[in-house]
Design brief:
Number of strands: 29
Number of helices: 22
Distance between the termini: 55 Å
Strand content: 15-25%
Structural class: alpha/beta
Length: 659
């Protein structure tokens, strides 16, 4: 350690520096003078500055050294009600998280739930999507990490890391030395003082913690009596990339450091290794090709500018790519309701001003793990997007290098479109509960004595698509997949005859058939009313079975639908044999149609009731394949609303969002 302070620590800020230089991507920005952490009062009362900013030549890591007390303070506290993580961590209103001790209680409960000794001397990732409260939370968590023996924390510049990038940093940076990461995000939920905040923990493999850990965190949160923090640690200037090293004032030995890293470097290097950027540049140089990306004022923006900028996409085609703590006052959920501006630009809601819409449009959510894909006047459902990517695995370079796909997976509510691809390709298909952690188990099955299922592609109908390159869904990765698919289809097409998104999807339907699909979301519903809807369907299932109905004797309902099964989806993990129950009520019909109803665990207040409606059309009938989805699904939608009584029980005449 001491020699580092004398000579400086020379380390390239990017392990793929030559590659990124070739791409023309800057690794970081110049840093200025140190701001002194806690200000004058802190410097006079708590520490003295020794060495300050160590000069560093180009390519070297800046070192900022501060002498400070390493004394751990134990603060008395009492439990807060309801610190129970949902599908993707703990999400509450920002005002709830801002209560004194609320964040600290949850972090203490988390740290206490990790295996003994896991944090001691470890590297931990702490960053988020930049929403209101993000930077302050990063500072608190760093001080608590120091109190629990963490040696080093990696933080993205300005406290920013997308959720996919955080998974990448945990897995890839310095060979994957990080023990895990605390991700500050409420994903696609709004941000701001009156909106939402969230926090979740990703484990050593880069994926979300399993339910066994989150349940223990919750149990500890109900019994907590104190939390530990190094209160004397100054705030770190998160705008300064470099190593912020804290030296104990009693012995002069370094005891903790926060390294502020370029948030894009590891992720961009990974994407460059997965995709053929030269082929993508060739596609994007075509006069008849155009792309637009909407960052929705979330953390995807810096990554989009780095990647698409290197591929030659003009700045004006990268919309809303400056992160904002309230996401520009919008709702950063990439769907046709909240990404209405993009939908209009792509011609989905009328002819946009300025001529023809772009060929490919895309958007990402607040933390960049979700995506929406649209073509010129054509919307791609997330279920179809997953199926099309799977069917084009041969066109994705990193999959070809690894010998092709080994497995496919989808969440239960996601349509069966990808099932038909799996069947034709002879691949195993896994149907899981909603939650990316279940996919992570499949990806790592070979590490737990099971079959090697990677490379694996997977997805959720809630605009989440990904693969085993990381352990999170990945919005920008999905966009690059679609750009690669278009590049594959247009290697030899003459100018003016470019194969676009609609043509690719239509070809897919002609080969595999079409799963007509829609989702109705009723957001912020009274929790008791939501539970009453579920109980109604459970009771209907009991009556259905009691009357002797089943697959061999279906019950005939309105419009000729024959109900073959009513059940609640449960899942036995093929890797660790854990079971997960009550994951949604399913109404399965004799013709393969489905109605699924489940309560979402990603909101911060009340409940979100989601109703999924699906009908399969086999290939062969061109007119039926290309029918309007609303018309094709209308009878089944009417039946779903009638059976669930959602309007009567919630008082809502219409859903909040229709996908």
């Amino acid at each position: 350690w001491s020699s580092c302070f004398v000579t400086g620590m020379k380390r390239c800020c990017c392990r793929a520096a030559p590659l990124l230089a070739l791409l023309g991507i800057a690794r970081g920005r110049p840093v200025g003078s140190m701001r002194g952490g806690g200000g004058t009062s802190f410097l006079s009362n708590m520490c003295r500055l020794r060495g300050g900013q160590h000069g560093a030549a180009a390519g070297e890591t800046q070192i900022f050294e501060t002498v400070v007390s390493s004394e751990v303070t134990r603060v008395a506290t009492s439990p807060f009600e309801g610190q129970k993580p949902g599908t993707s961590g703990l999400r509450k209103k920002t005002s709830v998280f801002l209560q004194p001790g609320y964040l600290e209680n949850f972090i203490q409960s988390l740290f206490d739930s990790l295996p003994d000794g896991e944090l001691r001397g470890a590297t931990l990732v702490v960053s988020g999507d930049g929403r209101y409260g993000n930077a302050a939370a990063v500072q608190i968590i760093c001080k608590m990490a120091a109190a629990h023996g963490v040696a080093r924390v990696w933080v993205g510049r300005d406290g920013l890391l997308s959720t996919p990038a955080a998974s990448c940093v945990i897995r890839e940076r310095e060979g994957g030395v990080a023990c895990g990461g605390v991700i500050l995000s409420a994903s696609h939920n709004p941000g701001g003082p009156d909106a939402d905040f969230g926090i979740k923990y990703n484990v050593r493999n880069g994926g979300p913690a399993l339910e066994s850990l989150t349940e223990e965190v919750y149990e500890r949160s109900t019994q907590i009596r104190e939390y530990a923090i190094v209160a004397g640690l100054p705030d770190v200037d998160l705008s300064l990339e470099g190593r912020h090293v804290f030296v104990d004032e009693k012995g002069g030995a370094p005891h903790f450091e926060v390294e502020v890293i370029d948030p894009t470097e590891d992720y961009v290097a990974l994407m460059a290794s997965l995709f053929d950027f030269d082929a993508l540049r060739s596609l994007l140089r075509r006069p008849d090709m155009s792309l637009v990306f909407d960052g929705m004022h979330g953390v995807a923006g810096p990554y989009a500018r780095a990647i698409f900028g290197a591929l030659g996409v003009a700045d004006e085609a990268l919309l809303n790519c400056i992160p904002s703590e309230d996401f520009g006052g919008g709702h950063p959920d990439p769907n046709l309701t909240y990404a209405a501006a993009l939908a209009k630009l792509m011609g989905l809601t009328g002819q946009p001003a300025g001529g023809e819409p772009p060929v490919l449009g895309a958007a990402a959510d607040g933390d960049a793990d979700r995506n929406m894909i649209v073509g010129r006047r054509f919307f791609v459902t997330p279920s179809d997007s997953l199926a099309v990517i799977a069917a084009h695995a041969h066109a994705l370079p990193w999959l070809a290098r690894q010998g092709g796909l080994r497995a496919l997976a989808r969440s239960m509510p996601t349509s069966g479109a990808v099932d038909r691809v799996a069947e034709e390709l002879g691949l195993p298909l896994f149907e899981t509960p909603t939650g990316w952690k279940y996919f992570g188990n499949l990806m790592d099955s070979h590490l737990l004595g099971g079959a090697d299922l990677s490379p694996l592609l997977c997805g959720e109908e809630s605009f989440g698509t990904g693969s085993s390159h990381i352990r999170e869904k990945d919005g920008l990765w999905a966009v690059l997949c679609w750009a690669s698919i278009l590049a594959h289809h247009n290697v030899d097409t003459p100018e003016g005859q470019l194969v676009g998104v609609e043509e690719v999807v239509t070809q897919h339907w002609r080969r595999f058939g079409r799963n007509f699909y829609t989702r109705y979301d009723y957001e912020n519903v009274d929790a008791a009313a939501a539970e009453e809807i579920v109980e109604r369907l459970r009771a209907m299932g009991s009556s259905f079975r009691g009357a002797g109905y089943g697959p061999s004797e279906p019950q005939l309902l309105q419009d000729g639908f024959a109900l073959a099964t009513i059940d609640e989806f449960s899942y036995r993990d093929p890797v660790d044999s854990s079971t997960t129950s009550q994951q949604g009520v399913r109404l399965l019909f004799a013709d393969g149609s489905r109605i699924v109803l489940r309560l979402s665990g990603t909101g911060s207040v009340g409940a979100t009731v989601r109703i999924y409606i699906e009908r399969y059309q086999p290939p062969g009938d061109e007119y039926a394949l290309l029918a309007n989805a609303t018309d094709a699904l209308r009878p089944l939608v009417d039946l779903a609303l009638h059976l669930s009584q959602v309007r009567e029980l919630t008082g809502r005449e219409a859903p909040t969002v229709i996908t």
